Write a sequence for this structure.
C-alpha cells in the first residue's frame, strides 16, 4: 500500500502490560485476519524478513504541536518519538511494536503520525496517509488541546476524516495540555477550578465533535496528570471494539 513505517521501539508485550495491565486482554484477543490487520514486514529486531505479521493498531492523530509524540513517549515510558517545542516535528510514520505472540507473529502497534494543519500542500499529502492508517487502526486517539478556544480547524479535519459513524466509534478524544487550562498555577496537579473548567471544556468538545462525552478524556502528557485514566479508558474501548 506504499506506506513506510519506521519502528522506533520494539519489545515483548509484557513490557507494556507490566505498566498497564489494562492491555492484558490483547493476549487472548482474536486479531482479524483481514487486509487491515495484515502487514508485510521487514523487521530487523525480530528478524522477520519479508514475513506476514498481524497487528492491532492504536493511532495518535491531531494538529502539529498538540503533544502526540509526547503522549506516546509517556505510554512507552521512554523518549523514542521525537518531540519539538517550536518546529513541525514528525514528518513520517513512526511506531512502537509490542510482540503479543511470536508463533503467529502478532503485535500491538502504537503509531505516531505527522500533525495536520502545517500547510495545504502537506495536508493533502498527509490526509491520504491518515485515511489509510485510519482504515488500518482499531482505535484512534484524536489529540486536542484543552487550553484552546477555537476548534474550527480541528473540527474541519475531524469531520473530514471521520465521516461515518463506523469511523467515529473508533475515536477517543485525548484532551491534552490539561495543565494549561485556566486558572493556571505553578503547583503540581490540577486545582478544583481547573477540574471544573476541564469538565466544561470536555462537554463542549463532546457536543461540537459529536463524540460521546465518556470518550473525551482530559490529561497532560507532559506532567502525567490523569494519563492513567486516558490509558485505562482507551484500553477498555479497544477491548469493546475488538469483541463486537
Ligand atoms: N505544558 C504542556 N506541554 C506539552 C504537553 N504535551 C506536550 N507538550 C509540549 O508540546 C510540544 C510539542 O509536543 P510534541 O509531542 O512534539 O507534539 P506533536 O503533536 O507530536 O507535534 P508534531 O510532531 O509536529 O505533529 C513539546 O515541547 C512538548 O513538551 C502538555 O500536556 N502540557
Ligand atoms: Mg510528533
Amino acid at each position: 500500500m506504499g506506506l513506510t513505517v519506521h519502528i522506533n521501539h520494539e519489545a515483548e508485550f509484557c513490557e507494556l502490560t507490566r505498566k498497564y495491565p489494562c492491555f492484558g486482554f490483547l493476549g487472548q484477543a482474536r486479531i482479524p485476519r483481514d487486509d487491515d490487520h495484515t502487514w508485510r514486514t521487514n523487521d530487523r529486531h525480530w528478524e522477520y524478513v519479508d514475513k506476514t505479521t498481524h497487528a492491532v493498531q492504536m493511532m495518535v492523530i491531531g494538529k502539529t504541536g498538540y503533544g502526540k509524540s509526547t503522549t506516546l513517549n509517556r505510554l512507552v515510558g521512554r523518549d523514542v518519538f521525537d518531540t519539538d517545542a517550536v518546529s513541525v516535528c514528525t514528518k513520517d510514520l513512526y511506531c512502537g511494536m509490542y510482540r503479543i505472540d511470536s508463533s503467529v507473529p502478532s503485535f500491538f502497534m502504537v503509531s505516531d503520525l505527522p500533525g495536520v494543519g502545517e500547510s495545504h500542500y502537506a495536508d493533502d499529502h498527509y490526509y491520504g496517509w491518515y485515511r489509510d492508517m485510519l482504515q488500518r487502526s482499531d482505535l484512534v486517539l484524536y489529540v486536542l488541546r484543552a487550553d484552546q478556544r477555537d476548534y474550527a480547524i480541528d473540527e474541519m479535519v475531524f469531520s473530514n476524516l471521520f465521516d461515518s459513524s463506523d469511523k467515529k466509534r473508533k475515536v477517543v478524544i485525548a484532551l491534552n495540555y490539561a495543565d494549561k487550562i485556566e486558572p493556571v498555577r505553578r503547583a503540581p496537579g490540577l486545582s478544583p477550578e481547573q477540574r471544573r473548567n476541564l469538565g466544561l471544556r470536555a462537554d463542549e468538545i463532546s457536543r461540537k465533535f459529536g463524540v460521546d462525552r465518556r470518550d473525551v478524556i482530559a490529561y497532560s502528557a507532559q506532567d502525567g496528570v490523569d494519563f492513567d485514566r486516558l490509558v485505562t479508558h482507551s484500553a477498555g474501548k479497544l477491548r469493546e471494539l475488538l469483541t463486537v
